[in-house]
Specification:
Elements lengths: L9 H12 L3 H14 L4 E7 L5 E6 L6 H6 L27 H7 L2 E7 L6 E7 L2 E8 L4 E7 L6 H5 L4 H18 L4 E6 L2 E6 L4 H9 L7 E7 L4 E7 L11 E5 L2 E3 L2 H10 L12 E6 L5 E2 L10 E2 L2 H18 L57 H11 L7 H9 L34 E4 L3 E6 L2 E6 H19 L4 E11 L2 H4 L2 H11 L2 E6 L2 E8 L7 H15 L4 H16 L9 H12 L14 E5 H7 L2
Parallel strand pairs: 1-7, 11-13
Antiparallel strand pairs: 1-2, 2-6, 3-4, 3-6, 4-5, 7-8, 9-10, 10-13, 11-12, 14-15, 16-17, 17-18, 18-22, 19-21, 20-21
Helix pairs in contact: 1-4, 2-6, 6-7, 8-9, 12-14, 12-16, 12-17, 14-16, 15-16
Protein name: DNA mismatch repair protein MutL
InterPro entries: DNA_mismatch_repair_CS (IPR014762), DNA_mismatch_repair_MutL (IPR020667), DNA_mismatch_S5_2-like (IPR013507), HATPase_C_sf (IPR036890), MutL/Mlh/PMS (IPR002099), MutL/Mlh/Pms-like (IPR038973), MutL_C (IPR014790), MutL_C_dimsub (IPR042120)
Keywords: DNA damage, DNA repair, Endonuclease, Hydrolase, Nuclease
Length: about 625
Amino acid sequence: MSDIIHLLPDSIANQIAAGEVIQRPASVVKELVENAIDAGATQIQILIKDAGKTLVQVIDNGKGMSETDARMAFERHATSKISKADDLFSLHTMGFRGEALASIAAVAQVELRTRQKGADLGTRLEIFGSQLQHIEEDACPEGSIFSVKNLFYNVPARRKFLKTNDTEFRNIITEFERIALVNPSVSMSLYHNDTEILNLPESGLRQRIVNVYGKNLNQKLLSVEAESSLVSINGFVGKPETAKKRGALQYFFVNGRFMKHPYFHKAVMQAYDQLIPAGEMPSYFIYFNLDPATIDVNIHPTKTEIKFENEQPIWQILLAAVRETLAKSSAIPTIDFDVEGAIDIPVYNPEKKISGNESPKVQIHSEYNPFKREATPSDTRPSFDWTELYQSFEADRSAVLPDEEIVEKKIGSAIPIEKEIIEKPVQPAEEKVLFTNTSVQPVAKPCFQYKNRYLVTTLKSGMAIIDQHRAHLQILFEQYQKSIRQQKAASQQMLFPAIVDFTPAEETILPLLLEDLSYSGFDLSNLGGGSYSINGIPDGMEGVDCVTLLKDIVAKAIDTGCKGNEEIGDMIAFSMASAQAIPVGKVLSSEEMDHLLASLFLCSNMNLTPDGKTILSMLTDDELENRFH
């Protein structure tokens, strides 16, 4: 029998190995920029075409390479950064595996122009699919210019599964920001399709963060510092009041390298315990500096997973450092028992009479009634019988009510009931006074509020318990959803327009959202540089922080990766409803409870909120009887 095991050609082996290192255009940017930093570059320029699918070009002013080094750099496991195994435990460079350039050259068309400092001429070479095509002397500037063209041109299956240009470019920005945040001494710029996206001059650490994410972040950061024999920690954490559910900026860096570390993240979150609402996340930029021999970065080719020898002690130091920072900023409340110098407030004593001072006497006309007056010849206004008018309001409470059988069918089925119960839909209500301007008729049923959170009422089959916050959220969601789909949302112009700033990563997804935001009632104007003016807001959204709302909508769109206009519209409607829904703990009047229930019973889905949480729970008559057996 003939032998069946054979060695793969280098080109195929390189393509297989490249799959771990080069996953998308952002991986190319990461590897090339890190190489430029290792080469001592102080200026790095990144040019992107078609989200990196057509071109990724990185220009640096580093030390450059000789002709021999330029050729060797594309060989697998060829590196200048380590020479023996022990060097893995004393790394001071970003790269060390010698795989990045070989992996890039295996799946793209690469051109390198490089010249060493002081050399008269440089070298230009071309490599397509791991094959050297051309090499010659070149009059190029000092440093290196890497041009990676047509990524995955020889691996069509990989190219086919790349995401949209917006998604891929957002990943490039993410990698760019991670490198920029930890190298503030390096001037960096990013261009996409000849448009400048970011231009970051050499600066300090705090200024670099502000340059990347906007000047509004400067007032929201608190400095963190901790020194010990194990680790040096510095950086910034966000003030507790700036925490948010989505889009928090959370970064860990160790020895100049970005890392992901859920265990250290837990330490930061524990420091914020009882300071931020459940489910919200603070921003932080934490930088660790420690002996390279105590960490292991050789776990995964992406080098974002790092093991620490002294993980538990560092966890404790990080927790203490963040807590100390929050305490110094008065984020943690303190009790002040100092009463020295307090104002003496006199106590009223009704039995004590002050001579010469008597309370003034007021003359009251007991027979005066402001609603009854004599008609004069000049008075042409009609007179009203206010008692009769009030009685007519009471009569309306039981006029046109939702059919109880239809309501119970809705409760037992998630299928929307298409039967119209009233002629007019519920208009978006002002949150301050619930449903005051609406044609929905209140429910003429006994109803009371339990623990300022639940509404309890009776139906034909038993007792219904309703979460008031979720009920109002569902009502508003269906209203805004309908307005967006019909493109008929009312907008209220702002007297003083607000300004909202988006990061470059957030700005890449805005074109997908602007149309539906306009349909929902937002009037936005692009001011350039990631800034937008909020000229108008949806009617009924007064009192809502629309800047925060828009940032949350964009962050949610990035997290969920919304596809299709209908999905984007529903996401916007849900975000708007969440921002305006009545909070848990709000005391409702009997009229507000009646209108809330009536509006809920008219919803197409009264059982679950858009995110799948239960709104209404039934306690049937049979279940009640069984409890008393």
